[in-house]
Write a structure and sequence with these properties.
Blueprint lengths: L5 E9 L4 H15 L3 E4 L3 E3 L10 E10 L3 H14 L15 E7 L4 E2 L4 E2 L8 H10 L12 H6 L7 E3 L4
Antiparallel strand pairs: 1-4, 1-5, 2-4, 3-4, 3-8, 6-7
Helix pairs in contact: 1-2
Length: about 170
């Protein structure tokens, strides 16, 4: 029996250390542990969201094909983040060498204790929507029934999001 390939959208972010190198290394680890990366946005420099820091983030969105189930993806993301020394603790926001968030997994809607899909706040964050719009403007949010482009045009966030380069 052939396994089904799931389409996964992730957001990568780093605001400590060699941010660009961290993104590149995380992409390699995603390919190795989760599945082939099929689309990659440009890199965007973004203001921290939800906390104060002088260190801006570098963020990028990626599309990945995977055979893994959502819980398995979360475990692999934990391994990737631990490679950079990150230990997730509670819900507070802080500076970090690497953050990987699941934005979408097919058109799945899931609300668990430790995992919600789609990401519950993506529609409120330009640093998520701008890179995601670059690679999937017509992707429709399964709860709001609006495309990423529509969500971006209605996003209340006014934090800076500046396109840098492709990786």
């Amino acid at each position: 029996m052939q396994k089904k390939t799931h389409i996964l959208y992730l957001l990568l972010g780093s605001n400590l250390g060699d941010r660009k190198k961290h993104l590149s290394t995380a992409l390699d680890l995603i390919r190795e542990l989760i599945g082939p990366v099929t689309r990659v946005s440009s890199i965007y420099e973004t203001e921290p969201w939800g906390f104060s820091s002088e260190n801006y983030f570098l963020n990028m969105a990626v599309q990945v094909g995977t055979f893994l189930l959502p819980g398995e993806v979360m475990l692999k993301i934990g391994e990737i983040e631990e490679t950079f020394g990150r230990k997730r603790q509670g819900r507070s926001y802080s500076s970090r060498t690497m953050d990987v968030d699941i934005l979408f997994y097919d058109d799945l809607v899931m609300k668990g204790k430790t995992l919600q899909i789609p990401h519950p706040f993506l529609q409120e964050r330009r640093f998520v929507l701008v890179p995601l719009n670059e690679i999937a403007p017509d992707l429709v949010h399964p709860i709001f029934h609006k495309s990423i482009g529509e969500l971006l045009s209605n996003c209340p966030d006014n934090k800076k999001v500046r396109k840098l380069v492709t990786l």
